[in-house]
């Protein structure tokens, strides 16, 4: 999936349901943190928070009471439309369509910046973050959903060396002038409760590019379910890393 195809896919998902997976039934074991809980703990009541790649705003809206003003940006018009609908009754949240590579805000405007599962520019973040401000990001690691990608013989970052994304993020933050950079990771086990829950995930994420459009996809899915069905559900993994950096 190239950048244009990903943008079209992402915008389509945004118009349908934002980035809302709350109805997907999945049991997770081994998750070490909740990212937006970590963001919330970092914020003071007087802070201004920027959330990059905010999707339909579902996550940032859950911590709206944590800061004075929360601003969510996303490159997708569909996602921002959904986010604005979701936030109609919340006064201290604003959503803007904006590219993370060109943050059109005053210099040193934000106290805290977050980015979950979204691309970011370390130099742009450094530009709009106050001195002493904190940046937090959670990203999907290369071996996430590994058994699914191996079963389909294709998938997001399947051939990418493990930890290469984390290493690049840390390098970029160092070069942008951040210090006190800390990284954390986990590899949790997930159990999707029904085939429908797994299908929803695959249709609404880029884990398997063009899922359902190739002739053998559903045959491969049926075999994957047979091979990975357990009493707890259909087993796969969620691998994540988090970086917290101070400017």
Question: Strand fraction band?
Answer: 25-35%
Any idea what the radius of gyration is?
Answer: 18 Å
Computed structural class: alpha/beta
- Which shape, going by the Cα principal axes? globular
Percent range for helical residues? 25-40%
Main β-sheet, in a few words? 9 strands, mixed
In DSSP terms (H or I, runs of 4 or more residues), the helix count works out at 9
Report, as a whole number of angstroms, the end-to-end distance. 34 Å
SSE order: HEHEHEHEEHEHHEHHEE
Report mean pLDDT, rounded to a whole number: 91
Let me know the number of strands.
9
Low-pLDDT segments, ≥5 res: 1-19
Structure, explained:
The protein has 9 helices and 9 strands. The protein has 247 residues and is α/β, with parallel strands linked by helices. Strands 1, 2, 3, 4, 5, 6, 7, 8 and 9 form a 9-stranded mixed β-sheet that branches. Helix 5 links the parallel strand 5 (110-116) and strand 6 (129-140). 33% of the residues are buried.
List keywords for this structure.
globular; alpha/beta; 247 residues
Furnish the topology, listing elements before pairings.
Layout: H1 3-17, E1 26-29, H2 35-42, E2 48-52, H3 58-61, E3 69-74, H4 77-86, E4 93-97, E5 110-116, H5 122-128, E6 129-140, H6 146-152, H7 164-175, E7 179-192, H8 195-203, H9 217-228, E8 229-230, E9 233-246
Parallel strand pairs: 2-3, 2-5, 3-4, 5-6
Antiparallel strand pairs: 1-7, 6-9, 7-9, 8-9
């Amino acid at each position: 999936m190239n950048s244009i195809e990903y943008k079209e896919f992402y915008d389509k998902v945004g118009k349908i349901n934002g980035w809302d997976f709350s109805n997907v039934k999945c049991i997770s074991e081994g998750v070490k943190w909740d990212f937006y809980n970590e963001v919330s703990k970092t914020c003071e009541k007087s802070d201004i928070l920027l959330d990059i790649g905010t999707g339909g705003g579902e996550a940032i809206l859950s911590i709206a009471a944590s800061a004075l003003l929360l601003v969510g940006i996303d490159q997708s018009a569909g996602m921002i439309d959904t986010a604005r609908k979701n936030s109609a009754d919340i006064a201290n949240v604003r959503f803007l369509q904006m590219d993370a590579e060109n943050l059109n805000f005053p210099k040193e405007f934000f106290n805290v910046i977050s980015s979950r599962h979204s691309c970011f520019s370390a130099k742009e973040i450094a530009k709009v973050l106050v001195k002493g401000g904190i940046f937090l990001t959670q990203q999907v690691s290369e071996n996430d959903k590994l058994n699914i990608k191996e079963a389909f013989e294709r998938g997001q970052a399947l051939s990418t060396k493990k930890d290469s994304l984390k290493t690049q993020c840390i390098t970029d933050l160092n070069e942008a002038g951040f210090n006190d950079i800390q990284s954390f990771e986990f590899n949790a086990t997930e159990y999707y409760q029904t085939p429908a829950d797994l299908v929803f995930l695959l249709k609404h994420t880029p884990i398997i590019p063009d899922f359902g459009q190739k002739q053998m996809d559903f045959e491969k899915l049926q075999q994957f379910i047979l091979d990975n069905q357990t009493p707890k559900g259909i087993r796969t993994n969620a691998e994540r890393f988090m970086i917290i950096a101070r400017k």
